[in-house]
Amino acid sequence: MDISSIIGIVMGTTLLVTGMILEGDLRIFWSLSSVLIVFGGTFASVMINFSMSQVKTVLSLVRIAFAGSAGDRSHEIISTLVQFAEISRREGLLALEERVHAVDEPFLQKGIQLVVDGTDPELVRNILEIELMSVEDRHRIGHRMFDQMGAWAPAYGMIGTLIGLIVMLSELDNPDLIGSGMAVALITTFYGSVASNLIFLPIAGKLRVKTEEEIFLKQIMIEGILSIQAGENPRIVEEKLKSFFPAGFAAAQRGRDLEAPAEGVTVRA
Question: pLDDT (tens digit, 9 = 90+) per residue, 138-149?
Fold first, then answer.
């Protein structure tokens, strides 16, 4: 779970609600028609702009945005690759075929299987990089979807404002309805701005960060897989993969190794 995202949502919502309470009765900020205009209109535009299969991924994208960082798996991935390097040096590449299936990482499984099958190193790199580009393209659709929602929500807020002004101007001879029309006009703009800046655009940004982390981790896997195929010393493989990270990473890794058994696939004697 991404704690910073949860804290940000809770903090933003709490501060907004507190500010509204300090200014008066919280009920004056509620308008069902404004909710329908902003959120209903935004999701209607999403369905028009994207295919149904893409729209169905909205909830899964939200889960991804609030999931833990891909970088949290880096220690495990490096430990696994180093163990694979030790096994291949001792028993040969074919010994990896059974062990790789114990790893819950399809990209790594695919790369090791290509190596075990005797695929040319350059072809292995090309295949995995194409897979990498495909992942990036799929993720980009999710980014764009939430970016668009962040743009549409304020637009529908403005539409709600226009609706409220029309109601207000059409009832100038009835002072009792002028206030309700103005309320709809302002509250709808408020809802659109909050939805855009507190929900949709931050989620789009978080998904972008998650994609960058995932791509970075897969690039590390590619280098590790090719190092294993080249028969490099496991210690060299470990140092090469750790060089992708800041200087403190190696110390943190050593601390983890002292506190607990190595993560990843267990090396069989």
Answer: 888 989 999 999
**Greatest distance between any 2 Cα atoms in the chain:** 91
Which residue type does 241 have? L
Residues of the chain with pLDDT under 70: 1, 68-72, 175-181, 246-269
Burial per residue of 62-96, b for 16 or more beta-carbon CB atoms within 10 angstroms, e otherwise: bebbbeeebbebbbbbbbbbbbbbbbbeeeebeeb
At 148, give phi and psi (nearest 5°).
Answer: -65, -40
Task: Please list the alpha-helical segments (H only) found in 92-120.
Answer: 96-99, 106-116
Distance CA 231, CA 219 (A): 19
Cα(117)–Cα(112) distance, rounded to whole angstroms? 9
Element (H, E) at 83: helix 74-91
